[in-house]
Each structure stands twice: as structure tokens, then as C-alpha cells.
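user: can you give me the structure for this one chain? C-alpha cells are fine.
assistant: on it. calling the predictor now.
[tool input]
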Amino acid sequence: MIRIASCCRLRLRRSDDRSADLRLLHISPPFRIELLRERRADSWGIIPLMQPLTAAFSLLVAASGWYYMFYSRAATHLAHVEGEKTARTRHRLRQANGAVMFLMGILFYAGFNAIDYTSSPSAFIAVWFGVFMLLSAIVVLALLDLRLTFKMRRRRRAPRDQ
């Protein structure tokens, strides 16, 4: 059994006048021809500056989550307005939201810079599905915080209305 592999590069023109680099592989036996698209930043429309920008965006999201987890104390200052127990609940909600944001920053970095969609599409889809789920969790946690705000507002207005 003889196995021969040779590679050559082709420059193909598409109808939209953008060029793509393809690698042509000949494998014998059996004779097969496979065209594999090389991952190049300009072949799918991303400029070379995008990688540092997406890394900075991921770092910004993760840093915001870190801040909400450990340094944000605004919810604790509401204890005299809404009660100690509700203020602790609000603070825990915001800490959980910070943890979710921190994880989302990590997944943003993995989705934008670390995982290649051509080599492992299932991992790529799993990462972006995880981002979607974490974003949904952020929305749910924010709605719970908003509900606490509406309760606080209703309690503060009740004595004035009577």
C-alpha cells in the first residue's frame, strides 16, 4: 500500500470578487480530492485588528463581573431604605450576576480567539451556546433585581398614598 500526499495552493476567484486560499490534497489509495479551506482572517471578512479588540472586550466583560462580585457595595447601602434581608438578597443577586459576567468574559475570549470553528465546530457551538445561556441568566438576574426595586418603590409609596 503506497500512500502519496501532495499539497499545492490555489487562488480561486468567487463571484463576489473576493479571493480565497484553498489547499488541494491528493491522497492515494483510494484516489480522493479534498478541498480544505485555510483559516485566514481576511478570507471570512475579519480585519487583523479584530483579535485584539475582541480580547479587550472579553477582558472588559470579565473585569466588570469581577468588580460586581467583590467591590460593588451599592446594594448594601440600601439596607436602611428597604430592610436588611432584602438588601442582602439584592447584594447576592448582584454578586451572582458578576460571577455570570466573569464566566461570560472567559467564554467570549474562547469563542472569539481560542476555538476555531473549522477544526472543532461542536466546541465552537458549545461555547457560543454557553454565552447565550449566560446572557439569559444575566437577564433573569437583572429582572429579579428589578422586581426587588419595584417592591421597594411600592412600599415607599404606600404610606404616602394612604
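assistant: here you go. Confidence is low (pLDDT under 50) at residues 1-44. The two ends are 94 Å apart (CA to CA).
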